[in-house]
Amino acid sequence: MARPGGRSARVQEAVHGAVRELESEVGRDALTVPLVAARAGVTPSTIYRRWGDLRELLSDVAVERLRPEAPPDDHGALAADLTTWAEQFLDEMTSPPGRAYLRDALLGDPDGSNAGRCSAYAADQIDVILARATERGERAPDVETVIDHVVSPMMYRILFRPSPLDSDYAHHLVAGLLDGPVGAASDGTDA
Amino acid sequence: MARPGGRSARVQEAVHGAVRELESEVGRDALTVPLVAARAGVTPSTIYRRWGDLRELLSDVAVERLRPEAPPDDHGALAADLTTWAEQFLDEMTSPPGRAYLRDALLGDPDGSNAGRCSAYAADQIDVILARATERGERAPDVETVIDHVVSPMMYRILFRPSPLDSDYAHHLVAGLLDGPVGAASDGTDA
DNA sequence: CGCTAGAAGCAAGGTCTTTGCGTTAAGGCT
DNA sequence: AGCCTTAACGCAAAGACCTTGCTTCTAGCG
């Protein structure tokens, strides 16, 4: 039985906070369950029982950090909105902390629910952009199409390729999507 | 100084073999360094010194298993080659053991070199397919384009999405690539 | 054939992880 | 309002794992 307002919630908040504090103080690699527990004012066994593992705890915290805080900027045109969003996304995810959160979120995730949450965050942001475009009368591609053509390639390269990525790559992907047969034809708005 | 033919090589082989045996006997989650060491006939400290961590050892073994054993099939046409390869790739990677190896390979990989090796395996296979197509006189897209449009979307969904994937999705991606503006126009050969 | 250096064995110490049991507190019931 | 139920936490001990200094072995070299 979940008890969202009670002691459980306080403990969860204390532990998450302890992870965030210690991450910036001693570094992510020096984190241990007993260390986090001491900072949070709980016993290690509490963490082991609730999260099972340091990796799962880090995964939870990482997903929290990957959640976008605001809807994407509105630039008045689909191409600009998507390009800007993709550039920001790529920038965040290629930064060392971004890569670390991404790794943590994926790694300590036995059932894949945290990974699914990350994917849903991106899909929601894209959904907002596409809905705005449709409202303006622009032809907009499907969310899944944007994920296939823009999000996936960036993520693949972040995870699997050692080479660095710049915002030109994000721009290239969005252009390839919107100029292609699946995407929206340009609609009078500037591209 | 590497000593490829000596004791180091024997130890490495024994440890890798022990991991493979124990994975199928007791399951991947029950593996521990002392267990593997006992089976391999070495002391745990040897493993800790060479690999540093159970995750890095599992990462090494996983990458070995993800290495393709043969060049991709030749069906006489680019579209058929790519579709078949993508279907097989998707099938392997979505299977529970495939997902486990993929996770392990990404997981114990501090510098990203193992992930890069996985990516290189796929790129090499695609390279063979594209070279054959060019040799036949077909117009073929770039390797990076194939990775962006076919490999990345499959990988993204495997890693981030809970929903199952079937071979229709692989077919859809290849078709989107070859019919699009970036890919090869159909060239008289059957698609 | 002796020398050098990298790699493995051994063992002890420390840290982390697990687990059983008692206690606390949140939510439901009368 | 007060009791009951039950999930969650604290405590502590036991066990497993990880680290590390030192020794021994072996492959390659002069």
From TrEMBL, chains A, B:
DNA-binding region residue numbers: 32-51
Cross-referenced InterPro entries: Homeodomain-like_sf (IPR009057), HTH-type_TetR-like_transc_reg (IPR050109), HTH_TetR (IPR001647), Tet_transcr_reg_TetR-rel_C_sf (IPR036271), TetR_C (IPR011075)
Pfam families: TetR_C_11, TetR_N
SUPFAM superfamilies listed in its UniProt record: Homeodomain-like, Tetracyclin repressor-like, C-terminal domain
Translocase listed as a keyword: no
Domain of life, source organism: Bacteria
PROSITE patterns: HTH_TETR_2
Limits of the HTH tetR-type domain: 9-69
UniProt keywords, alphabetically: DNA-binding, Transcription, Transcription regulation
UniProt-recorded name of the protein: TetR/AcrR family transcriptional regulator
Native organism taxonomy: Bacteria, Bacillati, Actinomycetota, Actinomycetes, Kitasatosporales
